[in-house]
Design brief:
The complex is a heterodimer.
Chain A (H helix, E strand, L loop, with lengths): L1 H25 L7 H17 L5 H23 L5 H19 L5 E3 L2 E3 L12 H4 L4 H24 L1 H11 L1 H6 L4 H27 L9 H14 L4 H18 L7 H15 L7 H10 L4
Antiparallel strand pairs in A: 1-2
Helix pairs in contact in A: 1-6, 1-9, 1-10, 1-11, 2-3, 2-4, 2-9, 3-9, 6-7, 10-11
Chain B lengths: L1 H32 L6 H19 L3 H24 L7 H22 L5 E2 L9 E3 L2 E3 L1 H23 L1 H11 L1 H6 L4 H27 L1 E2 L3 H15 L5 H22 L1 H22 L5 H4 L2
Antiparallel strand pairs in B: 1-4, 2-3
Helix pairs in contact in B: 1-5, 1-8, 1-9, 1-10, 2-3, 2-4, 2-8, 2-9, 3-4, 3-8, 5-6, 5-8, 6-8, 9-10, 10-11
Classes of the chains: A mainly alpha, B mainly alpha.
Chain lengths: ~300, ~290
């Protein structure tokens, strides 16, 4: 059973990461910096619980705020670039963050061992959950409680005026500006909110794996993060969840029996999905159909 | 001190010439397609792995290996174009990017299935010790790379600016819809540009790997990154810009490594790239000409 709990943990953390990219993508910004924000969250949260002995919840909150601050700092210069230039600029930023942690040492003695991040070796011994007697099941519940809260917040936001403003900016910046929407405020806050969610995801990830290193937060994770909402479609937060389950659950875990050949099929299936549904697995048409089916047209 | 600076600069220019060739291929694809091909490096790597396979299995020499590498890269490029770019015309640019990322993972897996060890030897093109000019050491194979990069730039520039095909290519890059109305087969132009870029990339990859005399599965990611960064540093979508960007990247890396060590070197490069993008776009805001030209 623990295997399935573990899988649910992975899916939960990746869902958060996908939702952070979804948030930014709503305003039309393709960001490859989400893995970098997650790295900030992971290191900050782990340092707070391990080095400062803080409780997990305030540590996660501070990690999210730290990542949001960094995201805000990226958001302002990133306003000046769009399209492909933004993709590359955020990619460069994400890689710069990763390389920063590659060179980051801050260790203190705790008992007879030294703990803390140590450059290329990473940050070992993040033992908050085992030290406080959390079972895998409880950790999974915690992760999904956070996922549910974030999803509910995004779902509510999507149905409010804020969601309409975000989508307006994503659809057509010029039109949005001409009806009096403040582009700077909208794009930077979307970036900051995305950074906060990515920071949460990183913070939880650090605690359930107990060991993080810079290589966890490379371009592969960044591309996965942006792939989830693109593959799932931007019509609803559930598209992202479906995409994460499809990729992490079906394609990665489900195809494990194929061994070395897994990635070949993995690539083919994603290409097939993008060819058949360029606007996402859950595009507006299928969403409308689902709504009719449950009688809420 | 002055000597070190000069040696670093020369070394940087030599390495940078390989980056320049990768950036030229990226520029060609981006100029026509307006899409980001993340599989560019991995498809070059497939070519290089096929070349290595020929070298190991049949003991072929450098010339045959080079030919197989370039042809393999073109074949892999064809596969990528058909799967990720040809079916997704119109507005779905991010869908192409995600699909090309998936193909990247596929190609990397294919490479490790072909040759499962971590690294393999690759035949050197010129096996002779470096020579010295005015106290500066120069490797012959690196010099060849620099020559190839300059030749490729000139050939590409002539093709794009002085031929009928180039005219059609520029028209497609400038305005796809109008080019189509004028009777240009824009899909065919796109495919040819893609295959040309793959051949150029295959050549660049072969020169880099032959100079290193070994190949690892990390090469694909490396090539994508270096080509992308060099293209961006040189200003998006211009042929001389790609070469200048590549050479600049090489020189910055060489000096960065000398002064700060290999880890901070990469950090420096990414920070520079971020600044370059943000500042340049600020200066050129509302003047899309640099992005429109090829």
């Amino acid at each position: 059973m623990d295997f399935y709990y573990g899988l649910a943990q992975i899916i939960g953390v990746h869902t958060l990461l996908g939702l952070s990219a979804y948030m930014v993508l709503l305003t039309g910004q393709v960001s490859l910096a989400q893995a970098g924000f997650a790295a900030v969250g992971a290191y900050v949260a782990a340092m707070l619980t391990v080095l400062a002995g803080m409780h997990l919840f305030p540590a996660l909150l501070i990690a999210g705020i730290a990542a949001a601050t960094i995201a805000c700092a990226v958001g302002f210069p990133a306003l000046r670039v769009r399209g492909l230039m933004l993709v590359i600029a955020t990619l460069a930023f994400g890689e710069a963050v990763r390389l920063f942690f590659f060179n980051f040492d801050y260790q203190i003695a705790k008992g007879e061992v030294r703990v803390g991040p140590l450059g290329g070796e990473g940050f070992r011994q993040i033992r908050y959950f085992p030290e406080n007697g959390w079972t895998t099941f409880e950790v999974m519940l915690l992760i999904w409680a956070i996922v549910a809260m974030v999803m509910a917040a995004l779902w509510w936001m999507d149905r409010s005026r804020t969601g309409a403003v975000l989508r307006a900016v994503g659809e057509d910046e010029l039109a949005a500006q001409s009806v009096g929407i403040n582009l700077t405020a909208v794009k930077v806050s979307a970036m900051a909110a995305g950074g906060f969610i990515a920071g949460l995801s990183g913070g939880i990830y650090a605690h359930y794996t107990t060991h993080i290193e810079h290589a966890n937060f490379g371009v592969v994770l960044a591309t996965f993060a942006i792939a989830y909402p693109i593959l799932g479609g931007l019509s609803s937060v559930f598209g992202t969840v479906i995409a994460v389950v499809f990729i992490q659950g079906v394609l990665i875990e489900g195809l494990r029996f194929m061994g070395d050949w897994r990635n070949l099929l993995f690539g083919a299936l994603i290409v097939l999905a993008m060819n058949l549904r360029p606007h996402g697995l859950l595009d507006p048409r299928s969403l409308a159909m689902l709504r009719r089916l449950v009688g809420r047209a | 001190m002055a000597h070190d600076l000069a040696q670093n600069t020369v070394d940087g220019l030599m390495t940078g010439s390989a980056y320049a060739m990768l950036a030229l291929g990226f520029t060609l694809i981006f100029g026509v397609m307006r899409r980001l091909n993340l599989s560019y490096g991995p498809s070059i790597m497939i070519g290089a792995y096929l070349g290595t396979l020929v070298h190991l299995q049949f003991g072929m020499g450098a010339a045959v290996v080079a030919l197989v590498t370039v042809l393999g890269a073109v074949a892999a490029g064809f596969y990528v174009e058909r799967l990720c770019f040809a079916p997704m015309r119109g507005q779905a640019a991010t869908a192409s990017m995600v699909a090309s990322f998936a193909i990247w993972m596929q190609l990397e897996e294919l490479a490790t299935l072909l040759l499962p060890r971590h690294s393999y030897p690759f035949p050197a093109l010129i096996a002779r010790p470096p020579f010295e000019i005015a106290g500066i050491l120069i490797r012959a194979d690196r010099l060849l790379t620099l020559g190839a990069a300059i030749a490729a730039m000139l050939a590409l520039w002539l093709l794009v600016h002085r031929s009928r095909f180039g005219l059609a290519l520029r028209a497609t890059a400038r305005d796809r819809a109008t080019a189509r109305h004028l009777g240009i087969d824009v899909d065919r132009i796109g495919l040819i540009a893609f295959l040309g870029a793959s051949a150029l990339g295959g050549l660049a990859g072969m020169l880099v790997i032959a100079a290193d005399q070994q190949i690892t599965p990390m090469f694909g990611m490396w090539a994508t990154f270096k080509g992308l960064v060099a293209m961006m540093l040189g200003g998006l979508g211009s042929i001389p810009g790609a070469v200048i960007g590549g050479l600049l990247l090489g020189v910055v890396e060489a000096h960065g490594q000398w002064f700060f060590g290999p880890q901070l070197r990469d950090l420096l490069v990414y920070a520079l790239l971020f600044l370059c993008l943000v500042l340049r776009a600020g200066i050129g805001a509302g003047v899309p000409s640099a992005e429109r030209r090829i």
